[in-house]
Fold these 2 entries.
Entry 1:
Amino acid sequence: MDANKAEKSTASRLAFLKYFAALAAGCVNGLFGGGGGMLVVPLLTSFGLTAKKAHATAVAVILPLCLVSAVIYIVKGCFDMQLTLAVGGGVVAGGIAGALLLKKTDNFLLSMFFYIVMIGAGIKMAVGR
Amino acid sequence: MNIVWLILAGAAGGIIAGMGMGGGTLTIPILTLALDVEQKTAQSVNLIAFVVMSAPVLAIHVKNRLVDFPSLLKTAPLALAGSAVCAWFAPDIPAEILSRCFGGFLIALGVWQGASAIKNKLKKDKSFSPQMRPLYLVDCQVLCSSDKAYYPKKFDTKNQPRPR
């Protein structure tokens, strides 16, 4: 009986943690304009989804967030038409290329390289220019 | 401001995003560190670019039935609320503080994701190393690289009538 109760309370605590994680992912995405997906994917995997489904569902979670945040950013005046067009065009082209590349490469080394670059950029930004 | 560099920066972020590794986390530092774009502008550019790029991607995922709607309903409302509130306050935060916090977030994310990638890799290698005969090892690796199920499928309850 006691064990059952304890199990129930840990389960509910876990559920609470997961809701909190969703909230945190939303906050990060709104505050930093990206990166929420990196938090949502592990969260969805913890619901028992496969990696592929978790990625697809993460896009569905993040898309409305980005839409709402983008509208708020534009309303608040953080917007540069020329910059958006140039970078946006590059992102779309690169995105298609990346999706095609993904099927061909074993990307352990590539992702390691990516994480090292990420940490390096993070240190540079945290220290300040 | 050189447009070619901007497009290249976008493409670099886009390739990473297309591979499913969180492109925005790379696009923003490239824009701010290398091209001297202001932090908040870089964020808004990244948000808009993501919306444009992932709308068709999402349509394809929905069509392929890869989107799990129960978990979507569980996560989306709270995430949406959090993001709307934080996006409302983000433009009022001084850019320097924002970019320093973003740097901290990048470090944490990089360490965490890198560690879990290494852990997965080690786990995968370990399961193939123990005392197997050489032939078995080859078989396993062939199976592994062929991307097929290791075991025969179990009784398919959906498509076949249950025996009574």
Entry 2:
Amino acid sequence: MIEFQQLRKVYESGGQQVAALNGIDLKINKGEIFGVIGFSGAGKSSLIRCVNLLERPTSGHVIVDGHDLTSLSVKEVRNVKKNIGMIFQHFNLLNSKTVFANVAMPLTLVNTPKDQIKKRVHELLEFVGLADKADNYPDQLSGGQKQRIGIARALATQPSILLCDEATSALDPQTTSSILQLLKKINKEYNITILIITHEMSVIREICDRVAVIEDGKIIEEGTVFDVFSSPTTSTARNFVSTVMNDQLPESIKELIQQHAGMQKIFRINFVGNKAGQPLLSEISKKFDIHINVLFGNITELQGTPFGNLIVEFQGDEKEIARTLTYIQEKDISIKEVNEHAS
Amino acid sequence: MLANTDQIIEALIETIQMVTFSLLFSTLLGLPLGILLVVTRKGHLLQNLPVFNILNGIINIFRSVPFIILLVALIPVTRLIVGTSIGTAAAIVPLVFYAGPYIARLVENSLLEVDPGVLEAAEAMGATPWQVISKFLLPEALSSLVLALTIATIGLVGATAMAGAVGAGGIGDLAITYGYQRFDEITMMITVAILVVIVQGLQSLGNFTAKKIRRR
């Protein structure tokens, strides 16, 4: 659906060359919600702007629906853009026009007959839940309402791709959530491929199917949201994950572990899916001659799958503890010893 | 010899004629120039640095010549266009050369105030450059453009006073010839009062229209 091949974007600033994108290879499948997460300046804005050529890549290819955009003429690119909707962090609505005129704009640009525009705009306003605001001006609306209008406008020409450029970053958590639900509904009902860039991991967790982590213009990690959240491999990804997973040990427990370094056996157990429903701890405490002390635990839902995270201390004979570990590993549950750095 | 009412009315009509026509022509000149100054600059819609630099330079040259000098310097051009270099119609040519570049700068300023995000949205929709200008840039700047034209109009009212130098007449000329040169204080007071009323009226009209467009 959208494919980046060896995409590079180099800016010249003050005689210096800065590579915003440094060889991106990425494929986004039809009908999925794909998230790209990164810190400011990582290149995610440049990346999303290359999908509709708001920015021309310095080299490499952007392939949308089988067309290599970099090889198309200006006019052909304009036609491709009709198939790509985009929403923005600051909404970018025309303040001089009514809500109706804003949503109608993409249709007006292609000279759609007036009665068709009217029908489509009302349909869209109904869809985003703002049918009563048609005659209002954007500055009479709240941030969430403005983004809904932005979404309605982006959908006017019935695109098959929707680009979301930090679309919820200017909104409060509650409004963010309602906008994300709306995006989910769009994805389900119209089977529109959605590409989201954000610096908020909660956005990725809430609606994305797959995610890529971008840093210094490169994709450093990519996978299903479940895989990246349950076992991030890079430290950047781990940082992002920890912002929403709350899987970091509380300071007091870290201190405790450091004080007794080498004297205790502390483990991190990750439960996935239905395994989270098994009474593992009570089972092993009955089966083996050890004591279990739970230091920390939480459970999060990822894409409808429960994901548990537990820090426990095993007290008892070393051999017995080793047997316990083997038993747990045989059950296909991830268990790792926690070192004194508590990581 | 005092100026009589007929003379004042005649002068008023001359001023209105000069301002109206020169405003019309200088807007026709200044608006496209102002748009070009914006869209040809670096990173904009139709980036073209040679065009931008040349326009920028020419406008600066015209903006730096005092009107009274422009009035005299342009006499050959005026003769070419109007056929004469004296009278109300002849004054319109230098007035347009004076106000056109001024309006171009004012338009440039207004258009640069438009949120770049809106233009980005326009490009994302696949709008052609002409559509970006006509359906996004100008409507978003309209209220500010009206205020800019108000400033230009008032500037023109002031400039017409000097147009008396080429026998163009007008209220300002009356104030100078009768009031200043013949020590006719009453005529001077009356003409100045009329000018004040005109300027106040224009500014109020401009503010009202701009506010109405902005609808806030």
